[in-house]
Design goal:
Helices cover 59% and strands 0% of the residues. The protein is mostly helical and 91 residues long. It has one domain.
């Protein structure tokens, strides 16, 4: 969202709630919409591998933002493990 690579209908009645939850993650107890977005991202990633934009100047990285990004990556890894476990159970 922060990179502007995902487009939303900002006039939709649900948009503000979604944006609030995404921007508070991982410091909020509510993450259902974050989970669903993570699953969607995993499915899209399986369909198409995108190039990851590299940061040009690591010195300008905010430590809180960096910690949030790490938490998001760890959460996504947990979602991936859960998906793998669910797939194994289904087999």
């Amino acid at each position: 969202m922060r990179a502007g690579g995902v487009k939303f209908d900002k006039s939709a009645d649900w948009y503000q709630t979604l944006e609030d939850e995404l921007m508070r993650f991982p410091r909020d107890k509510h993450d259902d919409q974050v989970d669903s977005m993570a699953y969607l991202g995993l499915m899209i990633d399986k369909m198409h591998e995108a190039e990851r934009q590299m940061r040009l100047d690591e010195a300008e990285v905010d430590p809180i933002e960096e910690a949030d990004e790490l938490a998001r990556e760890q959460h996504l890894a947990g979602v991936q493990r859960t998906m793998s476990q669910e797939k194994a159970v289904q087999m």
